[in-house]
Amino acid sequence: MLDIEIDGKQVQVPPGSTIMDAARALGAYIPHFCYHKKLSIAANCRMCLVQVEKAPKPLPACATPAANGMKVFTHSELAVKAQKGVMEFLLINHPLDCPICDQGGECQLQDLSVGYGGTASRYREAKHVVVAKDVGPLISMREMSRCIHCTRCVRFGQEIAGVMELGMANRNVHSEILTFVGRSVDSELSGNMIDLCPVGALTSKPFRYSARSWELSRRGSVSPHDSLGTNLIVQVKNGRVMRVLPRENEEINECWISDKDRFSYEALNSAERLQKPMVRVDGALREVEWNVALDYVAHALKDVAGKHGAGSLAALASPHSTAEELYLLRKLMRAMGSGNVDFRPRRSDFSSDGKRAGIPWLGLRIAEIQNLSAALVVGGFLRKDHPLFAQRLRQLARKAGKVSVVSVTGDESLIDLHARISVAPRNLARALAGVLKAAATRLGAAVPAGLETVEPCAQAQAIAESLTTGGKKAIFLGNVAEQVDQAGQLHALAADLSRLTGASLGFIGEAANSVGGYVAGALPGGEGLDGLNAREMFARPRKAYLLLGVEPEFDCANPREAVAAIKQADFVAVMTPFRDGAAMDYADALLPLAAFTETSGTYVNTEGRVQSVSGVCRPPGEARPGWKVLRVLGNTLALPGFDHESSEAVRDEFIPAGAPFAENLDNGVDLPLAPLPAASAGGLERIADVPIHFADALARRARALQKTRDAAEPVARIHPETLDRLGVAAGERVRVRQGPGEAVLTARADALVPPDCVRVAAAHATTASLGGMFGPIDVERA
Amino acid sequence: MAILGAINPILTVGWNGDAAWRLRDYVKRGGYGALRKILEEKIPADQVIGEIKKSGLRGRGGAGFPTGLKWSFMPKDFKDGKYIVCNTDEGEPGTFKDRDILRNNPHAVIEGMAIAAYAVGAERGYNYIHGEIWEIYKRFEEALDEAREAGFIGRDILGSGFGFELFAHHGYGAYVCGEESALLESIEGKKGQPRFKPPFPASVGLYGKPTTINNTETFAAVPFVLNMGAEAYLEAGKPNNGGTKLFSVSGHVNRPGNYELPLGTPFATLLEMAGGVRGGRKLKACIPGGSSAPVLPAEIIMDCTMDYDCIGKAGSMMGSGAVIVMDETTCMVRALERLSYFYHEESCGQCTPCREGTGWMYRIVHRIEHGEGRPEDLELLSSLTANIMGRTVCALGDAAAMPVQGFLKHFRDEFAYHVEHGKCLVPPEVQRAGSTFFKAAE
Amino acid sequence: MLTTESIQKIDREIAKYPAGQKQSAVMAALAIAQEELGWLPSEAIEFVATYLGMAPIAAYEVASFYNMYDLKPVGKYKLTVCTNLPCTLSGGGDAAGYLKEKLGIGFDETTPDGKFTLKEGECLGACGDAPVMLVNNRRMCGHMRPEEIDKLLEELE
């Protein structure tokens, strides 16, 4: 440790620390702009100049290594003179119009100029003007004259987002931040640049000029989107969510949030919110009072159960629901005698149900990722499925951790990968088996039976090498690994690989409550009841469906099958925050649900962390929190045990009070290795990604997100060779077919898609009429 | 162009004829003898560095840092690749010596770099050549081919087992790349933005590896130092200022060009060798070490000897040895305006005081020159130079501020006159008479 | 985008640098592209960036930082005249003025026939030969007094 003295106070810091690190350890503030703890050191703003004993000139605290016995003065005459000098230079070309700047009130430059700026400017020359840029729907670069060239945004792209979209072009005072020839900024993490910008140069396009920072209340919340459990600050003005910002949590999201986390709030304020219950009368939906609606639903459910048995009822929930909602839904169904409950609509293989040792989870704490020597991610569109999880792995690879991917496309992960295998979905298991076999061979262990015909490729060998050497290792099963038909097989293979190599095994999990749903027990069967899972309840159509926050036309593994089953049912009740979906066609009752930020509730993230949040604003109209709706529905149905006074009371029924982490997390599985499918299916195979901004009901309706490149309309992506074989030219319209379902799309040549595969996104209106996300598909010229 | 004049020359011996730069001619002059001797006799690296230290050879690029000491900073036990880089990004206004070195004797630089590589344990090197002197870059590439073919660079030099690969990298128009860390960034394929130091290149240099960077003239001197012996080289100059130096003389002299002199030669001698002030006019001022060195008025410079110590004591710097001579027809405000424009234009834009300050200073000087000066401008200028100096990432900030300070210090009355009268103390017709564009120099 | 010959030249430049450091060749590659195309349209910058495995904006940073790259079309002959102090003391500024008058254009302008573009240069590193100018970034011309300038323009006609 080094002993250093700052402004007379002693502090010890580890070797390699800077003066800035030491000051932070002491809690002493040194003014700065370009310095950011998560970014590389630029030392360009010069605001953090301090006096160091024996140094002839002031030194930048952010870049100067701390040395034993060093004496630093941050407020000495020399230091303050330097800092004031820098501030003067920063302000000469900066517009001095804080009152009309969107950043006003939360601007580092404004704040520091109060302490270090002069009362009048000595600068009498013309100010430099920088032209506005348009970089897409999320970030506004209209006021680039405000830029102070700290390059935080540039470094963020290079280092955190993994893609350099902004750069500082030109030189001298003409230096300016821009994209390559006016392109948009497309990173799924781009909004963080707005937070990083210390001035009003990069601002939030959806938010700008809609409120002042001091008018906004700041409330903590948790993201309802992916499984990370990203901590948020939700800012509210007049009962309306105006902005979402990261709430720093080093163990989860550090100081970042994804663009989906940041901008999905726009859907909350959408004109399409369902504000009053509706029931279908004479074929048309009519607004009714809550008691009428609940009576209607209760009667209909009882009626169907009476006529056809409780097993004719089925309930499906979105994994983005709160754990309390999931718990009460399952409780309600069981109390009515039905075990047909599920919260995993995109799953198609349930062979591991009943064979799992516990609740599937990440297998380690999120923060442990940074200490891995190697990680293998199997099956998923990592960067778009889990932007910040990918970011963690990106940082791991930057510090020489070996990150490998086995998946169904060669999508750019923006991670410096150790190895990668991209295969058709049907060959995922074979590819993973290759890694398993290579690892077994390397370790001199017996090759598991059934893998005789597997021949590990060079990449599989490289992955096996990374998993059999070094320190802590991890295997992660991504979304696709849970969505494909061989999900159970992949689980079993990964479990074998984990046992063999000592690597931890985990599921990244698709949604905010992918673990929470298991904790809440929103699963088929149990308590002596048989139960149909999310696939079976549609494959064997039921008479009544209760849908919670889920939009089967987008969210189900096989939307065509799901919608067909729902449409034939006698009764369909839909609990939803929105009134613009397909439910308007098939619902017999619509119950307006409070959305994220409007309800209290719990999310159990991928590492099993229990995070309960409060509602931060009221739901619109008569929309009500889901737990209340289900509780009152339980009362209306005269079911026992529906007397909770709060969402906490609901939670306490299934999570021990105060438990920071869920119990019984275990990825073990007792599933024999099934024979591997033949390497070739003989036809074309569909690969379906769930585009980042179509993954849940909220994102789908977020206006700005829907204008991003990530929200572009799906195309049929096909390997160029396969395209040639089909006699289709890139750019042509093609008809893609799965059984009776079909869609007409534009064909796009994409060498990242394995040959004989057709990548067609799921969760989108243009593809909702198709069948399963994976499996046979036909393509012909339209 | 050969050397225009020399006193006891070392570096420029043999600079005559069109073929002098060729390998054959260089070898005939004893070229590659020092490298051969070191490799054949397996002279320990420490001994080579010791010789360079003893010779008093100091960096010829401007900073004058002792070369042997710089080489000794390279970590000995680092095994993962070290680099030798030569700085021929000669863009300091007034300096044009390295161009002539590469034109007339590129192999001396190659040999010097190979010796340096041997001394510090580097296996790879680059010579970064000013983009504007394209013909010289091409010539250097040709010289590299000759040296490679003859086995003086490459995998196994002269069968010694020591290998050193050397390549040329051209700049493309950025003065700041003459700053060593900006130069490294530039080789890495980035904007030439200087790095914050520490770490210094000797620990984190090119591609993050330990790197020694020296000026062209420094490397060119190395073979001569070793051939003639450290003591003889030291004695060719004066104590602490070993050897000879090339001086680039430009501006108002009759014979602008390069001159090789022992360090410590009086300025007056150099001026005389350069044919004296044009048209027999009176010397007004001289910038003795490239445009960033503070200007010295005639009466001070005429008393100076040309070496690091004497020029330093006089309040300026010997820098790169670029001597810009100005006669009595020169308007000092206009001269400074052009220099300030240069530093403003060439600021890399990275750090605040330089990016903002150089532009501000230029605008003020520009106003003064154009009759729009304000009484407070001179104080403001002084204050700005103080706010820039020592506050920037690299020395370009200082380089921009020092001329302003120098001009204001010695020619303040001329600036004050401009501010007060909105015109120049040196009448326009006198300034015009100073131009030799339409008539050859006498 | 570029001829095979240019690509080969770029490959030769890449070979100068260690494995994994292709980006080091960006300055040379941009210069080669500019030599072939006369200037650097954004497509050329993107081509070079992709060829070297860098972000297009990173290549643009380079292209816009070094002032010998032309991001806008220039005339058949680009004349860069040094007007820095040492040159101007020896007629550099006068030479620029002479050219402006003779060609009827100012700095950063191109003659209507597309033949000449005039640029104000910073130190070319040849102050002893002042006035100096650079033709198309490649050919350095020194001691450029009126007769020499006239001769040069005639030659380039």
User: What is the CATH homologous superfamily assignment of the largest domain in chain C?
Assistant: Glutaredoxin
Gross morphology of chain C: elongated
DSSP strand content of chain C: 5-15%
For the biggest β-sheet of chain C, the strand order reads 2-3-1-4-5
CATH fold name of the largest domain in chain C: Glutaredoxin
Uncertain residue ranges of chain C: none
Largest interface: B-C, 62 and 54 residues
CATH top-level class of the largest domain in chain C: Alpha Beta
Overall number of domains of chain C: 2
From the alpha carbons, calculate the radius of gyration of chain C and give it in angstroms. 17 Å
What brief labels describe this structure?
heterotrimer, A: 782 residues, alpha/beta, 23 helices, 33 strands, globular, C: 157 residues, alpha+beta, Arc Repressor Mutant, subunit A, 2 domains, 7 helices
Describe the model:
The complex is a heterotrimer of chains A (782), B (442) and C (157). Helices cover 26% and strands 19% of the residues of chain A. Chain A has a 7-stranded mixed beta sheet with strand order 15-14-25-24-23-16-17. The radius of gyration of chain A is 28 Å and the shape is globular. Chain B is 43% helix and 13% strand. In chain B, helix 3 (45-55) crosses helix 6. With 442 residues, chain B is α/β, with parallel strands linked by helices. The radius of gyration of chain C is 17 Å and the shape is elongated. In chain C, helix 1 (4-14) runs antiparallel to helix 2 (26-37), helix 2 packs antiparallel against helix 3 (42-52) and helix 3 crosses helix 4 (56-65). Chain C is α+β, with helices and mostly antiparallel strands. At the B-C interface, strand 4, strand 6, strand 12 and helix 14 of B face helix 2, helix 4, helix 5 and helix 6 of C.
